[in-house]
Amino acid sequence: MPMVDPATAAMADRLTMEQQTALRCSALFAIVARQQANGNAEALAYPDVATRGREYMVRSMARLMDEEGLDRATVSRLLSAQAQALWDNGQALDEMVPPCLSLLEVSGL
Fold this sequence. Notes:
Layout (H helix, E strand, L loop, with lengths): L5 H9 L2 H21 L3 H4 L5 H19 L3 H17 L1 H18 L2
């Protein structure tokens, strides 16, 4: 993750693999949805994630707040840091989209 305050970094390190995956896929859906809205051809090759991806993010982040007792500000910092890390490593985006889309399908959203 990019530079974040020590408390946020420590919280990110304590998350379970499932929570980290939900955080990562939520950030990824936000990036892809933004790119799709901007007409990015690569992003448009994926299914539209604007609505379903946002709902996945909302539910996943609410669950993270409940499970870890986090406030919205902390979850927002975690999500922003994850999105920045993904953006900085653009090549990983293409590798991550298929598994995250699979999670979205399994979620039933």
